[in-house]
Amino acid sequence: MTDQAASLRAWAAKQERPNEIQDTVPATNADAAKRTVMVLDNTPAGSVKATENYTNVFTRWADQGRKWVGSPAQWQFVQVGPNHPELTDIAQQCRYWAIWIDNDLDGFKRAYTCLKALAATGQVKQVLALHEPIRSRRGLLSNLQQVAQNYFDLQLLVFSD
């Protein structure tokens, strides 16, 4: 049996590694009534559809009994692209970060670009993986988790469905 993701890992290994990442994350501003999640999203979808996707993931998790989610209505999602000129400043101010992961042919590449951008800020250590239901974490999600840890010193939090 061949490893279908070997070429993706090889591609990731050839990419430029970011500079040394800081060990500490600065204190954040007090959270507003709604908890804000900055979602690094490199997909061409519009922000209304994207926000709906993020909310659907939190609703699914809440329905599965993940208590930390609470009510999905208490979360506010703000979409930002990986090439945003003030990404480092935003990373200093925001407590919660996520990336959107599509389950299509370019999903790995777009997620990799987002992880690389977050790592380059030196401010984010944990990132929540938002994705449509996937039968198995093996493959796309586990490969992204390994890349996040091994190349960017980020912890990609993946919750199985």
TrEMBL record:
Source species, domain of life: Bacteria
Name recorded for this polypeptide: Uncharacterized protein
Organism classification: Bacteria, Pseudomonadati, Pseudomonadota, Gammaproteobacteria, Alteromonadales
